[in-house]
Amino acid sequence: MLDDPIPAITFPNGIEVPALGQGTWNMGERASEAEREIASLKAGIDLGMTLIDTAEMYGEGDSERIVGRAIKGRRDGLFIVTKVYPWNASRRGTIEACERSLSRLGIDQIDLYLLHWRGEHPLADTVEAFEDLKDAGKIRAWGVSNFDIGDIEELLAVPGGRHVAANQVLYNLARRGIEYDLLPWCQEHGVPVMAYSPIEQGRILHNPELIRIAKANQATPAQIALAFLLERDGVIAIPKTSNADRAAENRDCVSLDISDEDWAALDAAFPPPTRKSALEML
User: Fold this and answer.
1) Active site residues
2) Which top CATH class is 9-203+234-242?
3) pLDDT in tens, 76-95
4) What are the residues whose beta carbons fall under 8 Å from the beta carbon of 64, sequence distance 6 or more?
């Protein structure tokens, strides 16, 4: 199955990344799990899932430290994403937070630096800091997380705001609200969407119809849920696992050949939106 390549997504700056990466939410919170987490991340990298997403919020920096240990000595070819807390996202605070993240990660440059969600600091100040960091070579690109259409429109009106390179949002079979307007906008403008919690932290895996379709395709429910996201243009899924075998299972979702009938059955079980709704967050 590993002969099947992971689909690629191209960022506005021309950088290509795999559409299936690795998340790290909750990693670094228990010292007893550190070695398993590091081993899982290394296994995922070996399988081609070279995009790794983290944040200063996760474990108050300990997730970044786990990532740093996992990528030590193998930085080339990886795409590292991390995020700044909203309350750190002033012009000066963003730059200082970036320096701390770089130190915890043990790298000289972050590939994609995101504003985790909107806070009290003006977007203009955050964007100015992002642009300064990019000019200084500390980051390659910047983006946002948990931004809805209205937030994006405000961002575009800020000097430099049109340099936004990605939007990371909650998106999975059970959370399809972005398909109404946000996802089409991002697709039209070439802004990749990073889908966090792509299997709803496991909650959707007990859905009877998802289980039936998985069995029909000799797959697991999680693989079907990930394949659903990879079927969407411009979407990057970032499942989190601390199990190397599960990382390999996630990787194998790219080999599935799901029928039109099964896609239709998934739409019936998890209906797409018919009207605008508020952006969901976890």
Assistant:
1) 58
2) alpha beta
3) 999 999 999 999 999 999 99
4) 28, 54, 55, 56, 58, 82, 101, 104, 105
